[in-house]
Structures
1.
Amino acid sequence: MTTTVPADVLRQVRRLELRTRRLVDSRFAGDYRSLFKGQGMEFAEVREYQPGDEVRTIDWNVSARMGRPFVKRYVEERELTVMLALDVSGSAAFGTEARAKSELITELAAVLALAAVRNNDRIGLLCFTDRVEHAVPPRKGRRHALRLVRDLLSVEPQGTRTAFAPALERLGRLLPHRSVVFVCSDFQGADLDRPLSLLAQRHDVIAITIEDPAERRLPDVGVARLIDPESGETVEVDTSDPAVRDWFNAQVDAEERARQSLFGRLGIDEVLVRTDTGYVEPLLSFFQARARRAHGAVRAVARPSPAGSAA
């Protein structure tokens, strides 16, 4: 990462800030705050028992010394540490709609960063491929959030493949205390189970799955040359053959079921975002659904319809 930021990157940061700040101010601020209720309860004071107080909050030691009942009062810890773990591998550059997956990831990350700092939370960034490409420890403040956006626009990945283990292991070292971790990826890597399991044991992990509609179904366009954006491998496929299309579609469906099963088993929430419908409605729906529940993960993810906002 160079220390001198090109002028065009600074212009992109400013444009992105203006666009995402309006969304944060108008649509995300309240839902973001209600989503995360704090990481625990912090002791505030001991006060005299009042009718209606729960018996389990009585401080028996203080009560014994004072000769009358006293209770402990706690306040919710509001301040959070939020980490954005973003997949910048070769497959993130793919997109057949208005934007590539990487562009969607960048804007979504900007929204989450600005929402976090607006609520006085710490926000950090980790970009990864099959290695950690760039990492910034969590800090507070608008300037820090804009620095993360600038870094994300400037990062030039050295790797093209995807591996989750190095990134999630690094997160474990960067985050000594329980944090909220947004892992944003198309989740096409094969090493998800163990690293995600270890991360979810200590942190509140939210998976944001980015996909393009062309990845869901193989169209009938005759003989097509397909290039793997991560390995560079090229293969010719006769898409006019129904058996080929059926096989491809079955593979995609099986991978999706396996991913959702893994997330459900680990208690990881999933937000599904598509390049043709955008992130606004899926993210808002997730915020609202999670805020309504007291415990547990949102494991049932509604697949967005092809029509909708492209924000």
2.
Amino acid sequence: MTGLETAIPEEPNLLVSIGLGIILALVLILPFRVKKIEENLEPFFLVMGIIAVTISNLWSINLIIEALEAPVKIAEVYGIPVGIFQVVLIVGLIIHYYHKPIYSALVAAMKKIGVRTFAFIFVVLFGLISSIISVILCAVLLAEIALVMPLDRKKKVEFIVIACFAVGLGAALTPVGEPLSTIAIKKLAGEPYHADFFFLFNILAHYIVPAIIVLGIYAAFRVGKSTESIGVPEYTETLRGVVVRAVKVYTFVAALILLGGGFTPLIVWYISKIPPEVLYWVNMVSAVLDNATLTAAEIGPSLQLKQIQSALMGLLIAGGMLIPGNIPNIVSAGRMKITSSEWAKVGVPLGLVLMVGYFIIIFFIGF
């Protein structure tokens, strides 16, 4: 998921830069301004990705194959290929046919420990284990958990956005978790870091683990005391809906691969050369671009440890701010039919608070 294999001209091209800048602006603005686009994010991002690659003149067989294959072979968990399309489809089918016992077990747990404690436990648990099991599986299960919780829609959206921040952060702790961490380990495998399986855990866990716990507490606070009775909700998704949702996720992931590939010139020409303190904030583009592509361009053995930490934390936090920013966001939003505006109302303020907090911690406190 790097999009960096094709050679990029050393000197920036003004027309290409302007064209990609316009595409970026459209991607950031139109989903919030045009209802039709908001309701059809997948084809919109696919079209934008195709246009971006065309403007950059970076079409290649490898990129096309990558876009087609990534949704079905996006990561390896203990040597086993785990595709987002398969996980979303298979787990969706399991829920479809066995929703009664699954929902009943979740409701029984909520009745026993309370909704607030239930929210805290699952946000922290899934945040911590997302780097061990598939982050995709965590996202699928979180969406089902949110649907079962006796909350109004606004609180369910808040819960799932907060949970996706936790899962997205936690997934970066090992190369099993997500493509970003896999690429970072590969880029730092040689001198001087000799990055191994636990490298990212060793340099990021003291930032990420406390954040996951704080997000769990915040989720419990935002959920509050439920005023609705706890009972097994009605399952309304059709079999066709399960299949269509998996296809939409496939399209979205493929679109992000193309979008990331198309934006590679901007990343190489400008973003990768920005000072660390500024790059931390510029990495907020990870909210709409493939953060694995950004990682491939920015992370390298010549960077100091603090530069690596700040770049990765900026990418990881920003990834939770908007739906396209992270795979868990795409999966959960698709299941719960969360719009771009609904997600942004929660994700952007929360992401900005985290960005400011970690900027102070990393660059001023030096922790």
3.
Amino acid sequence: MLTGYEFFFAILAIAASSVVIGTVGFGFALVAAPVLLLYLEPQQVVVVINSLIGLMLAMVLVRNWRHLELRPSMGLVLGGLAATPIGVLALNSASPGVLRITIAIVVIVLALVSLKNIQLPFARSKVAGPSFGFLTSLATTTIAIGGPIAAIYAISQDWKPDRIRATLALLFITSDIVAFALYAATGLVTRDTLANIGVMIPGLIIGSGLSVVLVNRINDRIFRYAMIAVIVVAGSATLIRELSGA
């Protein structure tokens, strides 16, 4: 269980992560993972982060549920649920290095395409929702970093920020609930894991409160560029870390 200075820095990281995800709808693990990996085993970091993401996005969904449109969201959600068991098995048995590199490259390329306002025909097809949902949950349950993939899909739909936050919240909540049950069934949830989730909740609440203030001050254009910036930085950091062997 985290104590002392480890606990202090972890709380700061969780608070900052909560501000990011509460504002743009994703990016929690991108901020929290590098810090938590200093103190916890990688598998425990994935479980802790995904559990906290589920709790944080429950608060986001409560604030934005009026903007949620269920029918367009169901493809993402069903695709995500289908990938969750595969991701949990991968976390248990496989090295995620190659998956990290592949995801990072795809994320960076698609984010730069989105920055140029070039439409992705596939992202608007009938199979795009389930496909992006599948890839998002596969990455999330395996390495805790899948938000940029879903964000690329949401950007391609030209959705408003409130709708993006609500849709991504629904996707991650449903996936995280199933993932947590499977984590527990496969022995990845221990007493220390539950304790570390519990002590991080104050940071979650602090960050959530700050994100409410920021959300009301960001217009649609800034929101879009903020999302793309987070995607590019995340993908680049992941790629550099893997290629350097860190």
